[in-house]
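Here comes just one.
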Amino acid sequence: MPTNWITGAERLGDGSIGGVMDKPDAPARVVWHTTESGDGDASFKSVADYLIKIGAEPHFLYDPTTDRIGQFGPLNESARALKNDGTTRTNRVGKACIQIEVLARAGKPFTGYWKPGPNFRKLMAAIRSWGVPDKFVMALATEYGDASKRDRAKWLTVGGHYGHCNVPGNDHWDPGAISPAAIFKAAPVGSKPTTPSKPKPSIPPFPGAAYFRTGAKNAYVTQLGKRLIKKGYGRFYQVGAGPTWTAVDRAAVRAFQLAQGWSGSDADGYPGPETWKRLFS
């Protein structure tokens, strides 16, 4: 059965980024992008926030130097990282159109310095679960301005791996001259991710107190509300968790803080790093 969510991947945003595929009879494919940014945890957070803000979420955000992976939405729905090709909604071509943003620059191919690990193998296993073959359908661009081949007929009919540079209607040259052989070698068919004997729960990083103040409206408020409901504080939410921070959210947070045995300023209804950590642990 095809994988829709990778176990252990950090959930980014509210999980709703696209919709049903326009051409589900076409074979599944993967599109590789680069964020044209640095790597590391600070870049991971800022890029994730930016992609959510502009509504250009892929399915995955991957850091090639730390093996950190986050997922914005399920693989059985479309992403939002491609431009349309005229009337063809390129994000919605195929049984699946799995899109991966790698924290890297096209001018410095990440396969030359990356450190793929268990999360990369999980990513490749999810890709293969959709029947995507281990092949790049077209040649990748090697430099800025490279007129990489964008074959519309192949895009519409052939399953496999593509670069952003290969998608008709798009003008980017990422992911650069990465090595297809290195991609597949890092996750051989049949390989299984190694897991520690006592895996630690995945706790999303605390985004900062500024996201939870009067008038704030963002995906983190929704994420917090959903977690509070799951933890048993749904009585505060008559219409479910929403993106706008209100007195309802503060009351639910305060009830949770009081249940931890906290008082005074420690139970003021505003989430901090420790409140966040306990909610998501």
Remarks:
- The longest helix spans residues 219-233.
- The chain is about 25% helix and 10% strand.
